[in-house]
Structures
1.
Amino acid sequence: MNTLKKNNKNIKVNIEVLTNDIGSSTEKFKSTLESAIKKKKNRYDIYVYENIYISLYASRLLNLNGYLSKDIIDMYDPKIISELCHYRGKLLGLPIFLLYSVFYSNRTLLKKYKKPIPKTWNEMIETGKFILSEERKENNTDLIGFNGLFTNDILGTRSTYEFIYSFRDSVDAKFPDVKSRSFIDALKMMKKIKEELSSDEIFQSDDNATLMLMGMRRSIFLKYWILNEPLINLIDYDITRLPGSKEGISTSVPSGFNIGIDKDIGDERIDAAITTLLFLSSKDIQKRYLKNRQLITAINSLYYDEEVCKKADCELFINMQPLSDPFFTIKDGGSYSTKYRNYVFDYLYGDSTPQQVQNKILDIERIHFISLDTTDSYLGLTITIMVITIASLMLLSLLFLFRENFNPFFSFLSTDFWMSTVFGCIFILCLSFTYFGEITYINCYLYSLIQSLGISLTLIPILYKLIVKFPEVNKISRWVKKHKYTFFLFFVILDNVWNALLLIKPYSIEKIMVEDGQNFTICKAKSTICKLIIILKWVYIAILFLILIILIFIEWNIKAINYDLTFIMSAFYIDILAFFIFIGLNYMNVRNLVLYYLIHLILNFIIAISNYIFIFGYRLILAFARKTNVRIQLINKINNSFIEKDGTELKSNVVDSVQTSCFSKNESFSESNNYNNSEYNNNNPSFINRSGENMSSSHKKSKETMSSSHAKSSVFTKIMDYHNNADAYHNSNEIIYE
């Protein structure tokens, strides 16, 4: 600090040290450190912190990019600056000194047995086994071959990454991919070293135990941080780079301490802190301590300084092959690194196989999805086969609409609307395919669009029929009947408009990270606009169902369509329940890939199949159960009618008799007795009933009376009246509708 005074800075620095107690775990120290940082606002001006904890300090530290010149930053090793001093694009400190793990070889034992320092792991095993064998002959049973430092904390994580890095294919190669053969070879060698030169206990011992082994000379080889003066002169070990899978390849995880500044201390104190930081990390200070072998610097030019290299082992540092620390690429808590280490240790100390470790590590961040690939699961292929089979059967069933013998069973809707209803069921069934592959915005959009269209194609034909059949003739029912396709197209366009709005603020893709399971992604409405669009969409669907249910209630007592409405209402019950479950799923925390998608897929299957069966499919069952040749019946009835009836009544009675013969007397299954006759009656204004009386004028009079009596009644009273007298209204409307 005298230099600061000489430069008239007159800065006084008070130092407070927070250390890890001997025997305390790294995690406990991390927790203590985190508490100390948050304990008092603006408590410290400057932090000298171990760079592995940079994420803990990040919220408190000043971004130095705006305070230090480019020349000062470029003075340091750019790789060290990038990997150990940056966090989320911010320079949060300068490296005040570094740490490297190196290889210690027992000088006395290697000289005794005339063995060179190993340069590969295989050489280390060969030399170690030989020396251990010879020493045990001399009753030296306390000697071990190698310590490992594969502890169950961040030190063990470093050792794991470090060892695997030594199995890269070349000096400049990247860290071995988990799927590579090099990764498998590294795991096998790791376990081989433990079993032939060490033990579980020794491999898991910490750095304090390593120092004891070093001091007592009880190990042939050791891995540890490079020691500084005066300790380095007190040990009987030679220091070299760590071995590798082959000669010329080495490894080491760089670590060390950074110096950073609190960002909330005010401009005046920041200026003083910057001055102190520049002094402590200056080239002169770094050179002084490096020359005395008291630190390792990140200023590379000092390793080519002759004065420095007379005392420091510059060649060792120049030829060091530091690992681009993988867990520094995941700086938010290090959960990936912890899982990585634990899975490797399941093999090193447990019964897992290298292949199992490989798959578990891949699963840490791998996003799983449903696909036709059967490598991991047959779910995708099974779903595809089921959807194609069921959809094909639905499509084929439409052919019966064009069979004459089936016509009486499909009189509720026109052929084109029956086709619309079935295609709506197929659309909902095909929602399953939007879950296939990696989930993107397109999947989310297509799901919403297909779901909307599927619902509309299924329900709008029924809505059309119920409006047209409304007990009391009104402008709406007249317009809808006259503009059938315009009415239908309106809802289809409305669906496209709803979903086009999602292109403004689309769904977000949310990752569901599962501990010891399969990660997956889901569509999530996170923006306010997206949430509002989704809410409005479901409100629209709810209103549509509400209108349908009210109309069904009103028209429930129309005998001609009561049977149809019973089955349609059954389908609606299932749909509404399924939709409530869909909405509830958005608030459930389902963290299992297969379960999450199976719930959605099963619900879609239930909606599609139940709609098909209760609206369309059951008619086929009845048609096959009561199969009748309509043409032959028609001919027979005509022949009988020539004998028994006059020509005026012939057509009406023949059609009526043929259609009613398809059903039992007590069933009001379809409109064969009323609706089909009404089609005939509407085209024949002079319709005459079976008793020979002209019904037109009497029904008109009845209609006027009923309309007048309900003009001032409440909506609820009208609905109840329509419900109770629906059949009477219906019969009246059938005659005077047109």
Note: Residues 1-8, 327-333, 645-712 have pLDDT under 50 and may be disordered.
2.
Amino acid sequence: MPYITLFGGLIVAAWYGGAAPALAAALAGWIAARLLFIEPRGQIAIEGTQGAIEVAAYALSSLLIAGLGGAMQRARRAAEEGERRFRGFMQHSPNGVFIKDAQGRYIFMNRVGEKLVGTASWEGKTDADLLPREVADQVMAHDREVLSADAARRYQVSLPRPEGTLTLRSVKFPLRDPEGRRYVGAVTMDVTAEQEAQRQLQTIADALPAVVLMVDRELRFQYINQLGAQWMRRAPQDVVGKPVAELIGEQGFAEIRPYLDRVLAGETVIYEREVEYPAFGRRWAAVHLAPLPDGFVAVTTDIHERKRMEQALQEADRRKDQFIATLAHELRNPLAPIRMAVALLGNERAADHDRSWALGVVERQVGNMARLIEDLLDMARITSGKLLMRKERVLLATVIDAALETSRPAIEAARHRLVTSLPPAPVVLHADPTRLAQVLANLLNNSAKYTPPGGVIELGAELADRELVLSVRDNGMGFPPELGEHLFEPFAQWAPAEAAAAGLGIGLALVRGIVALHDGTVSAASAGPGKGSRFEVRLPLDESVPARERAAPAPLSASGLGRRVLVADDNRDAADALCRVLSLLGYDTRAAYDGAEAIELCDSFRPHVAVLDIGMPGRSGYEVAQRVRARKGREIKLIALTGWGSDADVQRARDAGFDQHLTKPVDPAVLGEMLSRS
């Protein structure tokens, strides 16, 4: 049957042209067959039933072939269009896209991939043909792993290029075609810039004086800087990936869990707490938590020193308030009997012995106030480093005698028994005898104050390794052992609940300051409340030159006859009172109540000595001294009598022309001695 020979052409026409070309080819083939091969040749006619059946069968077969060919051609075109779109999409991908067969030969690579590899001539080649040997080995090993696992994997490789090393991050996955052939697909991203930015951020994070870390939503560490790793005493790689609870402990995790829940809910959280660090122990930290899409970032700063300073400031503020309250109390104590004594002196019916008693009260209480103020000034001088030390070689016995002279009244008043134990041979010190006596007197007075009546106080001295060890021991109320160091801080006091602390709390601080200026140390110890105390002072010895006995003071002149003294003070009571006292000593006195009047009296009264207050209105004592010196030279002796008593105040007075400087309130005997020698 000649029509059968036409089906091959029909199939070809259908495959390449579709249904319409196949039908045209069928018609053209039938016509050609009728004209050239079927008898009678040269005629187009259907002869008989048999001929009609053959034509119908041919037509039906042609239609079927054309239909199937059209469908196949449409499917092929759709596939080609899909592939074209796929390739177009892959070509425009911002990442490199690669497809390799099971033998590692490239069958697809987009333009970005060509740039990464460095060539457009890749088809049919392998990684060994395109990449450096070491990189190719890594990539092919990754491909084998993906095919073996039949699962996607993530990888990162470094690819050397002339312009620099690229860091490439890839997602690789297995592929199969309908015939079951296996391929490896890869989407590769150039993360060089990202990695460099991360390195820069890590450098910055490592340079920060704070712990920086990132945690995912499963509460696992994703990043930690060097400082954080040091605080944990771990390498960063030993922290990343570990659960937070595992590294900080279940208890610590439970304490911060409420904060973590809040930041994971999208809230920024800031808090402060004490944290237990393996490298440092328990320290205060400030923590700032900020939410991220996949977790949160935490910045932790060590604020331990700040917290200690805050606590110290709070403690200092508490002590300041306590000091002010105590100072008010201590000032009221002497003022109360002074006020009563003044009332008694002003009563005309008071007997002579009552007046004598009242004068004694005033003298004692004014002395107490003067010592209180002098202690405060000494504390200020020590704090500012301006306490003047007049050191000399002095015998220990001389210092102890002076201290006992000061402390014995308080010891005897409380009926204490004093026991002394001193070295048999003379001990020489290079010290300020007055200040060192003040140290011992303060320690003895402290024991006398805090020991119940009838107690025992022991004063001891012994030599040990070119040091002198002075100790004051008592069987008094004692103190908790841990307070030994704190007792020497300014305004620090301790007393049991049933007793009240006495004094301002600066005596022991003065002791420590003065001892330190002698290159010595002081310590306090007690077995506990009610078990007594021991204070120990260690001082270096001076064995170079024997000490000289201190000369006794020259006897004071009891008469000021013929001597003229000018007293200037804007406090009229103070000026008049001093004039009266000096008049009783035989001096001829005049009072001035401001600076201008003082200058006028210096011209008219022609005093031998002028005692001047500093803070006078109009012209200060400094100005008066300068004017007097300019007009009178050294004819007049100038004495500054003021409430300003620092070393700087003394120097300023000397610079203004004063010969002497005295601090209020002055002992009349001291002023009398100074006047008698003028």
Note: The mean pLDDT is 84.
3.
Amino acid sequence: MNFSFLRKLSFGLVISGALFFIAGIDKDVHAQKVRLRAQITPECGTTSLAKFADISADGNLAVQGSYNCRGVFIYDVSNPDAPTLAAWYNPGNNLQFLEAVVIGNRGYFGSGNGGGVHIVDLSVPANPQLLGIVNSTNGNGFNSIHEMIITGNFLIENFNGFSTKVLKVINISNPASPVFVRDINPTEVLWVHAMHIRGNRMFTSGWGTGAARGRTEIYDITNIGAQAPTLLGYIEDTSSVTAGNNMHSSWSSEDGNYLYSCRETSNGNADLRTYNISNPAQPLLVNKLGMGDLNLNATSPHNPVVMGNYLYVSWYEAGMQIFDLTDPAVPKRVGQYDSYQAARAEPDASKSLTEEPWDMICGLNRAQNNLPTGFDGNWAVYPFLGQNKVLMGDLKNGLLVVDASGLNRPAKTSCRILTATAKPIFRFTRRRAVYGKSKTVRTAIRNSHFSARRTIKSSPPITTAMVNRTSRFFDRATAFGIFWAVSAVFALNLSARAAMSPSRLIMMPTAKPMSPCGDRQTAPGIFRRAVSVCAACSGEQAVTNL
């Protein structure tokens, strides 16, 4: 039998069959419809990986807080393709501003290490001017805050630590002379991590303890300057004492009937929860999405934000995850952008495993398969400048501007290897699938009729038009038959190869590939650039371009 002919025939048919197979499988699988427009990473003199923090914007101004960088970074985002750093507000050179909010031409910067809340005039972004400070001696505020919100003329802030759960309400209509209004003492047992306001309702996110359940509370804050908030209801998990703890932050749907809450943990059990709060006295858990449900390899979700019909979630090492809320009780992921790609690349030292171009060897424990043990990646997301100018705040990389306007764009093809803009992204590149162990053996095999080594030469990219023309040529029934026929031929070919040597497939290099044979799949943060079959993993097929 001419095995060389079979190999040539099977290779061509497999690629054709794979295209039809990919086009025909479940269309509900999420697609990446977000593109990077710009990134700016200010230099701040620290080698820490946790440099930047929360982000906010208004008009052409964006402000980003700091973790270990210190100060606040003020950006001009009038050109989203080329944002610029207008100023670095850094009084004293050692203030950690975890919170940064801008409303109009006024900035509110909350310090986590003793500086209070700075209220700053940003009329001239390049020359920010301090208007006043809220702290323990000026407005009876906290010196260190973790989260804050501005509602009208009022600042509501928490403390940066577990020593108090009290929330403070302060009138800041005159920034130079803030006036203490009242304390809010929640029923949460330990600490309120974050607050969210929609209309006259405020939602708090409780942390809980190992012995007491955390509570997410719902308050009526109508006329908060004159009367104390009214507790309308609260959420706590009844399945176990700690199953609902570590509620990090939440955001309500536009109609106020649903609440999306991120539970932050470092053990892989974190999740995104959906509650029906149409009756705040009896909130109901209606959905829960964990990392396993979304096929993510990340520490935890962090902050959710709702704009219109979409839920945007900063998800640390999984970047930004975007969900459609057509059915508000069941968020459906429709897009993402991964700002943590480079961290998934293998260290240079591991390249000594093989002389060939590589990214992942089947069956080995690689970095992209390991559950992260720390917090890194996307910290915050701000979509309110529009879908074409969504801001991401990354702990290491600073400000990213992405275009998510493709989320509501009709698909131009059902073949998921193409982007919504129909730009060709699928290309065969010169790479080798290496079989055998020594160069001598490989050379002998290559020269025989049973050669198990193939160089895939460069070919033109596959475009939408090419796929559509091919799709019109074959109907689904024909494609189905071809796929199974190809599978049989390809299996025969693999059998001939396996008889010669244990196989090992080296895939094309990407920053963060999906593992075809690990027990944990990584987030498909970028489109994969190859379709490969992992012959070393019990015949498991690995489609790496999803």
Note: The domain at 35-340+376-408 is CATH 2.130.10.10 (Methylamine Dehydrogenase; Chain H).
